Amino acid sequence: MSTPTASLSRRVIELACRAPSVHNTQPWRWRVIGDARIELQADRRRQLPVSDPSGRNLALSCGAALHHSIVAAQAVGLVAEIELVPSPADEDLLARIHLSPGEATPEALEALIALERRCTDRRRFTSWPIPDARLAHLAKAASGSGAYAIPVTDVTARFHTEALLSRAMTVQASDPRYADEQHAWTDHSQVDGIPISDAVPSSPGRRPARPNRFAAESEPDSTASLVESSDGVIGICSASDGQESWLQAGQALSALWLRATREGLSIVPLSQVIEVDETRHALHHDVFAGMARPQILARVGWLEMTRTLLERTPRRPLDQVIKR
User: Fold this and answer.
1) What is the pLDDT of residues 112-130, one digit of tens each?
2) All domains of the chain, ordered by start, with CATH?
3) DSSP per position, 61-104
C-alpha cells in the first residue's frame, strides 16, 4: 500500500499529462498542495480562439487528463477522488484531486500500460467491421463520470452523422482562420503541437490517410469518406451543456479510449462537427433526437497488425505545467 507524497503527486501529474488534447495544446496547469491534493487549472493561453471560443475542447482535454490522473494514481498504489470545482471567483480552477492510500492491482497496471500506449493514429482502419455488441461494450466503459457514450448504429443516424461531419469540414475549410490555427499547431514545437508525421501519417502499400482536419487539402481523392461503412462511431454525450459537462465528457472519452486501446482498437476523435454551431445543433436534434447533448464523436476501428509505430506526440516538461 502506498501513502500520498509530493513525489507521487508529481508522478501522477506526469502520467495524466499523457492525456489527449485538442491539437496537442496541453491546456492545463497543475498545483501540488501538500502531499495529498492536486489542483487542475485551465491554461487559457492555450485555448484555440477560432475553433474553440467557448472552451469546450479545452475542458474536454482537461477532463481526459483528470481521468488519466485516476488511472495513474491507481497504478502507483493510490486512490484519486475527483472534485469538480465550478467557481465564479476563479474560472480557471477546474478540479481538485484528493489522494489517499491504496494498492496497485493487476487491473490498474494493465490500465497504465494502455495509458502509455494510447495515441491518435489517423491512418485508415482495416475493412473489418466493428460489431454493435463491441461498440456497446466500449460505451459501457465510458459510463460513471456523469457523461455517457452512445453508439451510432442506426443506418439513418449514420447517414445524418456522416453528412454533418462533411458539412462541418466544408464550413471550416471555407474560413482561412481555421487553417491558420491548425497550421500554427502543426510542428508547433518540440514539446507540444502535432508532428506532421502524425497529422498526415503515411500508409505504405495502402490508400492514403483518410481526410482529417490536417490532411483534407492534401487528400488526392476528394470523394473519400470521413467515416467508412466498417468504422464504428460513438458519441460522447451529456444531459446538459457547460463546463462541468465538458469535463465529464472528457473523462468519459478517456475511459473509452483506454478501454479500446486495451482491446486492440483505435480511436480517432471527430470534434469538427461539434465545433460548428450549425452541425452541433443538427447532431443534437437529428441524430440524438434532442435527448442528449453531443460533446464529441469518436471513430472506432481496427488498425493493421503490421503497421509501423507513429512518433509519440511530445509533452511539455513537468516544470512548465506545475504551478508553484
Assistant:
1) 999 999 999 888 888 899 9
2) 6-118 (3.40.109.10), 132-302 (3.40.109.10)
3) HHHHHHHHHHHHHHHTTEEEEEEE---TT-TTEEEEEEEEEB--
